[in-house]
Amino acid sequence: MAEPANFNPRPTLTSEAGAPVTDNQNSQTAGPNGPVLLQDQHLTQKLAHFNREEIPERIVHAVGIAAGGTFEVTHDVTAYTTARFLAEVGKRTEVFTRFSTVAGSRGAPDSVRDPRGFAVKFYTEDGNYDLVGNNTPVFFIRDPLKFPDFIHTQKADPRTNRQEPDNVWDFFSLSPELTHQFTWLHGDRGRPTSVRHMDGFGSHTFSWVNDAGEGHWVKYHWKCNQGIESVVDDEAADAAGGADPTMHLQDLRRAIEDGDPPSWTLKMQLMGFADAQDYRFNPFDLTKVWPHGDYPLHEVGVMTLDRFPENFFAETEQSAFDPANFVPGIGPSPDKMLQGRLFAYADAHRYRLTGNSHQLPVNAPKAGEVCNYQRNGTMAGRDNGGRTKNYEPNSFDGPVQTDRPLYAPIPSDGPSGSYEPDQHGSDDDFVQAGNLFRLMPPDEQERLVNRIAGGLAQVSKHDIVERSVAHFSAADPAYGSRVATRVAELRAASGRG
Predict the structure, then answer these.
(1) Measured distance CA(194)–CA(63) in Å, rounded
(2) How much is the pLDDT for 497?
(3) pLDDT of residue 3
(4) Which residues contact 287 (CB under 8 A, 6 or more apart)?
């Protein structure tokens, strides 16, 4: 049978309420040449929605790249954790992973020299577990109280509205703990050729506990299976990034669509709870790594990303990762930066996505059921609990607590107050930075020195330069002297003296 002449196989355009739209090209007017009518609901809906299309961007990690996939357990780790998604070899769990730069605002190139966020959401049967880390094993600072100040130095200056070398290097010169991360950042791995060719790290120390109640401190390492590839020529990379600000995003999309999904092997380091007490440095210090000679890597499983988001806003932009999202068998540590993030991330989501951000499809648990007494609030998208009671304890049929600890308790060792961390025998802001410098081959050392000197040579105050050079010298005398020499050469060439 022939289709009617007016048959159209495409769906009908509708209003927000589902009513069919008659004309999407011409607004309603009082006659052909008269003013626009307020009664045109289709027009007012479109304009009002347009005004509200954007949500507040992330203060940090605004430039994001994401993909979905699976995590498969490859090694038995049940001796260390009761986490059910890790309970047997071969078990698979759906994941969603977001990569991001730190300092740039939305629209900034995703190829810049900057740490990369490496956030993984595991949709487990016990709810979501979010492992929120970076592509470096350390961070700039060890105390969350300094985080807003540090980020302000990386973002636009209040007057010039651009990142200022004076701000970056002044803060560094007054904060020697940044030396290790600055060495990572300005080394070759500080600028990967794509997110497919970089490692990831949980960075923080976390806790695992087994069936017997025995605990271990844990550090996570995502080892890239595509091989590490890094930018050597910053100038060429800047030109390429300017031509296509989304080049890393497009690289990931093409790889997945071409049937070449990237993967990472998850490995861990384990430290007994008792070992942490007298280890040679503070194992909860985010500016330090655990030497692999002391705590070797153990394989856990493999993550494969094989699904590119169908809608960037719905998933990549609205995704919300919270390091406080733990599951039974995995928990936090006394790492001060981690403790600060346990509050800050969820609070950022409440501001950016409302208090019901966890109900968005990309953030909602997929295997486990959400069952609690939280109700109402902006954008409550579920049935809001229906007719069930909204208080606890109650005598009806609502959910009840398990009385089983989610993770191992963290002991307290004294009265409250503002303390500097306890000093272990080898606590130092410079030793590991010097070790990293000496591990680099001569050509990478040269590039590192040139990158650091290129930034320092733009600083207006000599005392900032002198303090900064002193940090690099404390890490390794050759490191500092080479930076100083190169800065002097660049300043002389520019007439700054």
Answers:
(1) 14
(2) 65
(3) 59
(4) 138, 139, 140, 141, 142, 177, 178, 180, 181, 429, 432
Cβ(110)–Cβ(65) under 8 Å?
Answer: yes
Q: What is the pLDDT of residue 420?
A: 77
Give me the pLDDT at residue 32, please. Answer: 92
Catalytic residue among 128, 134, 135, 167: 134
Q: How far is CA 78 from CA 16, 246, 391, in A?
A: 50, 41, 36
Mean pLDDT, 10 residues at a time, over the chain (497 residues)? 67 90 93 92 90 92 97 98 98 98 93 96 96 98 95 96 96 97 96 97 97 95 97 83 91 98 98 92 96 98 98 96 96 95 94 92 87 80 83 87 82 75 80 97 97 96 97 98 97 82
What angle separates helix 336-353 from helix 147-154, to the nearest 10 degrees? 60
Cα–Cα distance for residue pair 162/16, rounded to 1 Å = 40
pTM value is: 0.92
Right CATH number for 64-140+192-359 from 2.40.180.10, 3.90.1170.30, 3.40.50.1980, 3.30.2350.10? 2.40.180.10
Q: Is 431 helix (H, G, I), strand (E, B) or coil?
A: helix
The conformation of residue 425, written as its DSSP 8-state character, comes to: T
Secondary structure (H, E, C), 169-186: HHHHHCCHHHHHHHHHHH
pLDDT value for 5: 63
Per DSSP, which regions of 89-147 are E strands?
92-101, 116-124, 127-134
How many whole angstroms separate alpha carbon 79 and alpha carbon 174?
Answer: 44
Say whether the peptide bond before residue 393 is cis (omega within 30 degrees of 0).
yes
Contacts of 143 by beta carbon, 8 Å cutoff, 6+ apart: 336, 337, 340
Tokens of 168: 């970056």
- Hey, is 191 helix, strand or coil? coil
Strands (E), 337-419: none
Q: Is 61 a catalytic residue?
A: yes
Instruction: Please pick, among 42, 61, 180, 204, the residue that the annotation labels catalytic.
Output: 61
Q: For the chain, what are the domain ranges?
A: 64-140+192-359
